């Protein structure tokens, strides 16, 4: 979980709290370092300018930090969700490959995405008529509307419909189908609100029936590094292989996450555009220039290392509610 270490005891790069103890976010407005426990024996920390805001909803603990290396950073349940300086890498990778592989995407459903960055990237596509952003946590959405200036224009866009609801319940009750459905959910952590939306039954019975012919589903899929990809990335990939005909895993390094991150794109139609074809569609369909993603970058991102490829090829675990896997950490209700 994320913690703040106060200045006392800091010397020569050693990070300690008052009397050697680390202290939680709540109640502290001036501090030196943010520390996140990635594994039991591994922590990631960086210097802070200030804590801009902390809060809590019925689902999650929320914090907005002003960090020295990464600018403003959104932290939910002790896990860094996005940082100002590099969130474009994550969101360009989440959104654009699926949109570009669809011949003419007009309507998109986002599961989660409360900070607004996924919607921002979607609304750059000239073909888009409607984006539905469904997040369970109204506190997170309102928090991000107030504090994340970079997405204010997206929240004002008339093509965006914001719905506060559980994504499963919302998709079950809607009659319309979508060109693309995006899983912009928080990580599957024990006690968190989202892990049930990574299961085979959810993909098979809820997501797939809501896709149009040739529709595409894409989800963030957790850490995808040499050692971390077996937490959830490999089994999310294998789970989607049980549901869709074509499944493409890909990854990119996110500096503020201190790891490589993974996404998985799935469809019953081929997902095989060349780098040149992707670049052509970007020029014709996206307003403005991407900062990270182009055709060659996606080709590289979808060429996984030998170690990760072998793991994915040999993965047998299927994600269900009864056999859920989690990344390290725990949510508010664990």
- The percentage of residues in β strands lies in 25-35%
Q: What is the fourth-level CATH superfamily of the largest domain?
A: Vaccinia Virus protein VP39
Radius of gyration: 19 Å
Computed structural class: alpha/beta
Per CATH, the architecture of the largest domain is 3-Layer(aba) Sandwich
GO molecular function: thermospermine synthase activity
Protein name: thermospermine synthase
Domain PABS: 31-268
Organism: Glycine max (Soybean)
Topology record:
Layout: E1 2-5, E2 33-39, E3 42-56, E4 61-67, E5 71-76, E6 79-83, H1 87-101, E7 107-112, H2 117-122, E8 130-135, H3 138-147, H4 152-156, E9 160-164, H5 167-173, E10 178-184, H6 200-207, E11 211-223, H7 233-241, E12 246-254, E13 259-267, H8 275-285, H9 295-301, H10 306-314
Parallel strand pairs: 7-8, 7-10, 8-9, 10-11
Antiparallel strand pairs: 1-2, 2-3, 3-4, 4-5, 5-6, 11-13, 12-13
Protein name: thermospermine synthase
Catalytic activity: S-adenosyl 3-(methylsulfanyl)propylamine + spermidine = thermospermine + S-methyl-5'-thioadenosine + H(+)
InterPro entries: PABS, SAM-dependent_MTases_sf, Spermi_synthase, Spermidine_synt_N, Spermidine_synt_N_sf
Write a concise synopsis of the structure shown:
With 334 residues, the chain is α/β, with parallel strands linked by helices. Helix content is 26%, strand content 30%.
